[in-house]
Amino acid sequence: MSELFGVDSGRSRSTIYKASYLLLPFVALLSVTALNHSVFYQVNSWGGEWPGATFWILLTNLGDGFFLFPLTMLLFYKKPDKQLAVILTMLVGAVLLNGGKALLPSLRPVGALGLDAVNVLGPVLKTDTMPSGHTGTVFLLVGLSCLYLKPQIRWLVLLFSSLTGLSRVVVGAHWPFDIFLGAWVGILSVVIGDYLASKMVSGLKSRVAFILLGLLCVAVLPFYDNGYRSEAPVLYFQFILSFLALVLCFRCTVSLYKDELEAHLKKPGTLMNKGFVLGQRLTKFGMVGASGFLVDMGVYTLLGQWFGVPHLLARGGSYWVAASWNWFWNRTFTFSHVPKEKKLKQWSKYLSMCLVSFLPNWGTYYLLTTFIPFFMEYKQLALITGVMAGMLFNFTIATVFVFAGRQSNIAKGANL
What we know:
It is a single chain. This protein has helices at 9-32, 35-44, 53-61, 65-76, 83-103, 109-113, 133-148, 151-170, 176-198, 204-220, 232-265, 270-306, 311-334, 343-371, 373-377, 379-402, 409-412. The model is unreliable at 1-7 and 407-416 (pLDDT under 50). It has 416 residues and is mainly α. The chain folds into two domains: 2-251, Vanadium-containing Chloroperoxidase, domain 1, CATH 1.20.144; 276-412, no CATH class.
């Protein structure tokens, strides 16, 4: 199992072992005894007691990725060498937590007990209970803190993360079993993300991606509605976090300029030449993406408006048709200078990339059309936003992996 640990394998190994020793026994105990229900009833009653519903509602929102990422930026904006690990951990966590819900369909407390038996604070949720996504998300930060931050910060993060997990029971969204399982999956995601980061070199692209994620929070948070926006403290909290993310994005951009651009400017011509080649290739990639967007929109409209396919399924189908279109033209146009791989192999690699980039693309569309009223009405604009969110990710992976030639740049240590 040692191959699953990163550069600092001792600390990574210690983290997952401690998490397993502390969390998995509770998972097993709650799964085979009546404690899962009895503990739920006890904790769920706290919502009407001190310190009150507002306290638990604010805490539970820390498990939402849009709320948590600005706080993650606050802890890691001075650690650019760890920002790649943060991004990879988030991607792994999204796959494991959402994949777990898809593979393990189960009823939440309201779905099993009925609305009258549960004290619900916020939206009424009935299905897809395990693992707890909010708990898993906030425990990503616990694992990252254990690996990369000082002990004092680790304990503070652990305290607030544990309370956030507890709040999911208080608001009536999850069973205690889901909380322990979600926390363990979150820690496991960190260990896998640390391993993946150890195989790459954190550099310019990962730092830019870190800034772009922050800017996404700046743009989304003021309008974001996950079911708690009607609570005034939550609304104020969203604006505060949006402003925090904006400030941190600025700080990260200044740091990036000092560390990367000034170093290149000391070598006359180097930055200009690299910038021109990169800009030319990105322009071609954008042209192919624009044509793919027309295909995407056309298929989406055909499926949704002509054949009456539900809009989320239509969005998924149109995405994969456009992905195959983009692969062909990027192979023959954007990266025509790269030695050609066999078509089937390269097409498979490209669709594998799309399988991951589908998360920011379709995920952005889903979040906007689900939580923001404006995009509920104008779904095509949500589609455009999703396409833009996936473009930078696609270009990076396409450059260093899919169209890198017969000898992959990743094998040489891709500078991500």
